[in-house]
């Protein structure tokens, strides 16, 4: 067994930025209403014709450059997304083709936890020696999956992609210390896209009812999120015989500032240790963690030897954590 390490990170967000003030012109909301409840000020929205795989490829190229790798070096691509270019095939195969890579490629459907799930998969392949260069991407184009008349959901989400290159570490002290995954299908109904599957195929009636859009019970999502994220971070620390005081930085899924603050409070981790960008990106689902990680690395905040705790939760409900010594 060898230790897996994140060798490079990258991110991409579409050029178009939509502010809370912009949204207030088309729906019954205000900047104060959105920001006080979510911590969001702006979000990026993909241009017409811009596809999910396009966002993913742009982030992947940045990550490859940082890692000093080429697309031809990749031997596996894992994409976390619920908003692929098409329902079939996977987004990952389009990414593979656009990069010019020659390797297996598949998607992971864990919604906002997709990048953590993907990172855990990459870790297993690398640590066993089965793969040496794995591309993990979290990417979402959720602006096409929300009802822009529903102020409770459309204000939350943005489009973006984040990427990580995972390979063997040449230093056993540095790398992915552990990953931890969980799911609870008993609460699956609190966050769904009802139409498009075998239960509600896309029909004129389903579209008329708006079932092709994200539906969320925000109160219940909050309850599950704060409990699960606290527990999964504690699980990671316990697995590595560490305490919260050992954590240098927290890279949380940027879903809602209230969720982040509550989890940090329960963990007794000061907010200053959390890397935050929800005000600028909104909730980018599976892209959230790798985007935040990339900002921390490229901004010089995350440095060699730092202990980084990553956490995310999404529809399923599915959640996970990763503890990394940079």
Secondary structure elements and pairings:
Elements: E1 4-12, E2 16-19, H1 20-24, H2 31-38, E3 42-45, H3 52-67, E4 76-80, H4 91-99, E5 105-108, H5 114-127, E6 134-141, H6 151-154, E7 159-168, E8 175-183, E9 191-192, H7 204-208, E10 215-216, H8 218-239, E11 249-252, H9 257-267, H10 278-281, H11 288-298, E12 307-314, E13 318-325
Parallel strand pairs: 4-5, 4-6, 11-12
Antiparallel strand pairs: 1-7, 2-3, 6-7, 8-13, 9-10, 12-13
Helix pairs in contact: 3-4, 8-9
Give structural notes.
This protein has helices spanning 20-24, 31-38, 52-67, 91-99, 114-127, 151-154, 204-208, 218-239, 257-267, 278-281, 288-298, and strands at residues 4-12, 16-19, 42-45, 76-80, 105-108, 134-141, 159-168, 175-183, 191-192, 215-216, 249-252, 307-314, 318-325. A 5-stranded mixed β-sheet has the order 1-7-6-4-5, with helices on both faces. Helix 3 packs across helix 4 and helix 8 runs parallel beside helix 9. The protein is an alpha/beta fold. The model has no long low-confidence stretch (mean pLDDT 97). The protein folds into 2 domains: 4-168, 3-Layer(aba) Sandwich (Peroxisomal Thiolase, Chain A, domain 1); 175-325, Thiolase/Chalcone synthase (Peroxisomal Thiolase, Chain A, domain 1).
